[in-house]
Amino acid sequence: MPKRRWIITGVVAGLLGLAIGATAVAAPSIAAIACPQCYGLSSLGGGVYAERDDEAYQRVVSAAEQRIRGFYGERVSDARVLICATEECYRSIGGGGEKGQAFGRWALRLSPAGANETIATHELAHIELHKRLGSAYESVPDWFDEGLAVLISDDTRYLDPANGGNRCRVPYEEAAPITTVDWDTFGPAGSDRKYLLAACVVTHWVDEHGGAPGVLTMINDLRAGKRFNEVQ
Predict the structure, then answer these.
(1) At how many degrees (to 10) do helices 55-72 and 142-153 cross?
(2) pTM here?
């Protein structure tokens, strides 16, 4: 009964279309990651999609990827990168007031203000850590995740320049409580103070654990089932 099959096919296609449309309305970030071209972003190659065809965006992402490799020795994640040149574009793909945002182990988006090496590295650092941790990623507290991203991106808004000494911009004694108190109590999302404190504590942690090799050991221990406080 070919006519009946065509009717069923049409109904299924219609329902799928409604589902996709509902996703685009309810979760534009997910829809944009799945179909960047649907939001006016063009492929620049290498998983990078941008509102404007500008080679500078590729250089930014390449430099950020190199920073990840420089810290870990190699890069295991393969994220899709969405870059907006206008605020209208960034809002259309679900963005808000942040400069950039990582999504699990798969993708990140960058606002016009965040399309630079520091922010791109910060977000890629989250993705790399989560990819390496796999299902154990929830074992890492937010303060460590954020502080490590600041360290890898060498964000001098929150760290003093690397000169072989203490890089904290706040006294360590002031920052240390962030490891024992709920992360959200230190300020709203994106609060500079939270990043200052997290960056200070994590740089000390990394130094005390032998640098990047200590982070890799932590990752292996967490994947083996240990808790974060058991590998400190």
Answers:
(1) 110
(2) 0.86
Residue 215 CB neighbour total at 10 angstroms: 22
| Helix axes 142-153 and 117-133, enclosed angle (nearest 10) | 130
Domain count, the chain: 2
Q: What is the pLDDT of residues 112-167, one digit of tens each?
A: 999 999 999 999 999 999 999 999 999 999 999 999 999 999 999 999 987 767 89
Q: Do 211 and 157 fall within a single domain?
A: yes
Are 63 and 107 in the same domain?
yes
Which tokens go with 160?
């003093």
pLDDT at 191: 81
Q: Which of 159, 167, 83 is nearest to 120 (CA)?
A: 83
User: Is residue 133 situated within a structural domain?
Assistant: no
Q: What is the dihedral of CA 54, 21, 27, 112, to 10 degrees?
A: 20
pLDDT recorded at residue 83: 98
CA distances from 137 to 125, 205, 218, 220 (A): 13, 18, 11, 11
> Given a cut of 60, is residue 3 above it in pLDDT?
no
